[in-house]
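Ligand: nicotinamide-adenine-dinucleotide. Inputs:
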Amino acid sequence: MTHHEHGQGEVVTAGPAGKLVVPDRPIVLFIEGDGTGADIWRATRPVLDAAVAKAYGGAKQIFWQEVLAGEKAFKTSRSYLPVETLAALREYRVALKGPLTTPIGGGFRSLNVTLRQVLDLYACIRPVRYYAGVPSPMKEPEKIDMVIFRENTEDLYAGIEWSANSPESQRLINFLNHEMGCTIEMSAAIGIKPMTERCSKRLIRMALKYAIKQQRPAVTLMHKGNIMKYTEGAFQTWGYEVAAELSDGVISEAELMTAYHGKRPAGKVVLNDRLADNLFQQVLLRPSEYHVIATPNLNGDYISDALAAQVGGLGMAPGANIGDNCAIFEATHGSAPKYAGLDKVNPSSLILSGAMLLEYLGWDDAAQHIHQSLPRTLKDRIATYDLARLLPGAKEVSCSEFGQALIDHM
Ligand code: NAD
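Predicted complex:
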């Protein structure tokens, strides 16, 4: 054990107005994860520590503390998600997490979903940017630099549904047809789309505050309000209400046209909105016009993967699930069990999630070292097997060697 584990670190706390207070030696939790989780964590930690050392020369340092979840937890405590782990996540607030296998067997809920719900991690955040050297289907993938804020708790995605011809769906259809004026076929399956002002607004508020802080030019509400007026349409309405609340830093697209003749005043974020189908073509045809996207759960699911594919980075896309009291940064791929222990897979998703974590702590300089060394490493055609097979003349390296190469290129 190194001195890192001996608890000289300090707890990250919440200050006034929920603002994070980050000590110079914060304790950050990690969940290694199942399958390839141990491989990618072993490659990731030295990269993050090196980036912090490079940026702050010893003035700042992360104290990593392991908490157990998944198979590793089950082995010692017969629980996949021990109460101690949840208590630690609540106390220490910031964590980096590898992939967790969803054990197959009746009625077992995904640990990832459970974590999101129990800790109310209501925003799923996916930054999408292009790293030079990654094979992409786009002609100019470098024009893509967006961050998606996807609502994480409600919408059709909450999974409230009943199968076709079940007593439940028939009971609901009877009610809808007889009391609500609907004409639904009795044999239909039924799903419910709940969306609240509270959950929509807190998600949009987080996206707008992020854009203000990061000086992004615009936030786009992605919705299908022309068809689903009272859910997705309300999302749009609530979005502009949040913009009015934050009027020091935000103007609406309508105000931009009427009050500013279409020229964005310095320091203001523009809030606009686009119908979901239109936005899919816009991010293909005019990607440089979009910066931050705030969207309900289901749209967010689709656009996250579509955009990740546009930069060629589906396998290395980073992500985070964030609430008001806790933030978990995670590899977005699964545990790829067939490669477990082979030191083979690409650790970039976890490493880039770690870079997001550094930015969340306010340690942007350290994150920059990672954002710069990744394209340098790929430019030297050093890559794990997944990218090496797509890069002509590439030198294939192991998972841990790729981590070391990133450090060497800082
Ligand atoms: P997976 O992402 O684990 O693997 C699918 C394939 O993607 C792999 O066979 C491999 O070819 C490739 N791949 C995945 N990670 C890679 C990496 N780091 N580098 C290079 N290639 C990589 O998806 P799956 O097989 O559908 O799921 C396996 C398990 O993971 C399941 O139990 C699933 O529930 C779980 N899962 C967890 C998360 C999470 O923790 N967030 C996400 C998705 C799936």
